[in-house]
Amino acid sequence: MIEVRALMKRYGDTVAVDGLGFEVRPGAVTGFIGPNGSGKSTTMRMIMGLDRPDTGTARVNGRRYQELSRPLREVGALLEARTYHPGRSARNHLTALAAGNGIPRSRVDAVLATVGLTDVARKRAGGFTLGMSQRLGIAAALLGDPAVLLFDEPVNGLDPEGVRWIRTLMKSLAAEGRTVLLSSHLISEMALTADHLIVIGRGRLLADTSVGELTANGRSLEDQARPTELRGREPEGAGRSAVSGGLNARSGYRISTTSVLVWTCQSSAARLCRATLRALSENSAVPPPPRWNDEGQSP
């Protein structure tokens, strides 16, 4: 289990994480969603003890990362893809990690097989593609057979088959009773992978909800996986600034020429889109956009 309480982190005048709090429970894939720059990676680094929070706490199974006696056996993480010596082979990289953490060498071959790198295990990792590097990073996270796992944008660099493999792997790890925290800026991808969702913007919690709430209309996520537009009145002043800061062009946000707020997203994520827009507006002390139905039209 991961527990984050009132977490705060500043870099100079920039507030990266602002009083954030949530829990990640075992037995489910928890999607950690927010646009680029929303504080996801900073939060995960604080959970892993790589950055120190200004205030607040982040605990893994009741302890800070620094207090774990066998960290690689208790929590595994992929925060960056290329965290290995480029001259080492994939096997040697994992063997060194195992030796330094008291992990049996048999785990090296096991995780290489899990991530599909057995055939290239003796090749230098410096020649790996980004997708292969992601797989090696996942292998390192799984090496100690930990109960808690964190993955920061693991589908980066993967082809469609690799993305589907990630979905299957995440679900199988959760089915084994592990705690799985999976970050992404892609709402539609998380709607297909996660069981629960933590949504943040500008370092603040915007929503803490189950994926089931996205499918309460009875349609499957696959049936809803088509583009839709959510429209509402454009906020002014501070509200416009907050919305444009919380939703960027990469997530489908734009202001139309008729001053109508339009966010194009997958229909499977339409409810989450609406919740995010409302939360951003409420945080800016402006009226929230009107409610939408699943076809993106005002009732």
Automatic annotation (TrEMBL):
Residues 220-237 have a biased composition (Basic and acidic residues). It comes from Streptomyces canus. Belongs to the ABC transporter superfamily. The lineage of its organism: Bacteria, Bacillati, Actinomycetota, Actinomycetes, Kitasatosporales. Residues 217-245 are annotated as: Disordered. This is ABC-2 type transport system ATP-binding protein. Residues 2-227 form the ABC transporter domain. SMART domains: AAA. PANTHER family: ABC TRANSPORTER, ATP-BINDING PROTEIN (PTHR43335). The keyword Chloroplast does not apply. Keywords: ATP-binding, Nucleotide-binding, Transport. InterPro entries: AAA+_ATPase, ABC_transporter-like_ATP-bd, P-loop_NTPase. GO terms for molecular function: ATP binding; ATP hydrolysis activity.
